[in-house]
Amino acid sequence: MSLSVSSPARGVPTLTLDLPERRNALSADLVGALAEALGALGEDPGVRAVLLTHTGTTFCAGADLKDPPDPAAFVALLRQLVALPKPVIARVDGHVRAGGLGLLGACDMAVAGPASSFAFTEVRIGVAPAVISMPLLPRLDPGAASRYFLTGERFDGAEAARIGLVTAYAAEPDGTVQALLDGVREGAPVALAETKKLLTARVLDAFDDHSDAVIALAARLFGSAEAREGMAAFLERRERPWAL
Asked: Does the keyword field hold Lyase (predicted)?
């Protein structure tokens, strides 16, 4: 099973990315399972917030290169997270790469632990962070976005907090997560939903205005000769031909 869903604890169910042997990569199945679970939780009046976390040493390695999701389905999932009428909090204490960063950007809050690391690795395999740019660019420091999108450099949880990718970096992330959840539990459900609408309006506008263009761009790049070579080099653990 690629996703596990817990019963709500004081109104908060936990969605756990649970395929550590595949580094919780975003396969078509995982994207579909997340969309189905979020749809049910969004309509449940007993759910006050959603916690998104992971098993293993990787939160999410990005798209599963052997079974990638349809770009339109991934866009729909990210928009669903942003528009969900419940706050979504991510707990990360592992590696996050490429499309996995899109999941974080679509959450309302995120806490990174000391084992976390981050990298926008798309350019290194011949594609671009097209889809994930919609939830991420409004959140990130512009200079940091330019640096990390273009270089693919790895950075840690403290840097992720500094540039706005995550809400907080904590040596013991569980305590910080629980403090955020306790704060959300104090909020009235309708007031929380309406406040989230205020916070996410600009991001939802980006989805509505640019989804078709980024889906087309993602499809074009993933189908290119450059990307085919880049993904083959990654899977075969060899140097990419353009790396100098």
From this structure: yes
Whether CATH 3.90.226.10 fits 3-171: yes
User: Over 90: is that where the pLDDT of 210 sits?
Assistant: yes
How many Å separate Cα 242 from the centre of its chain? 28
Please choose, from the candidates 125, 70, 137, the residue with its C-alpha nearest in 3D space to the C-alpha of residue 98: 125
Phi, psi of 187 (to 5 degrees): -85, 145
User: For position 86, what pLDDT does the model report?
Assistant: 98
Tokens of 151: 């270089």
How do residues 55-75 score in pLDDT, each as one tens digit? 999 999 999 988 889 999 999
Beta strands at 14-17 and 3-5: parallel, antiparallel or unpaired: antiparallel
Q: What is the pLDDT of residues 212-222, one digit of tens each?
A: 999 999 999 99
Domains of the chain, residue spans:
3-171
The single-letter DSSP state of residue 242 is T
Residue 3 has a CB neighbour count (10 Å cut-off) of 18
- Mark residue 228 as left, alpha or beta (left: phi above 0; alpha: psi -120 to 50; beta: remaining): alpha
Reported confidence tier of residue 15, pLDDT bands at 50, 70, 90: very high
The answer to whether the CB of 32 falls within 8 A of the CB of 3 is: no
Give, for 228, the enclosing helix (H) or strand (E). helix 225-235
Tokens 């749809």 found at: 39
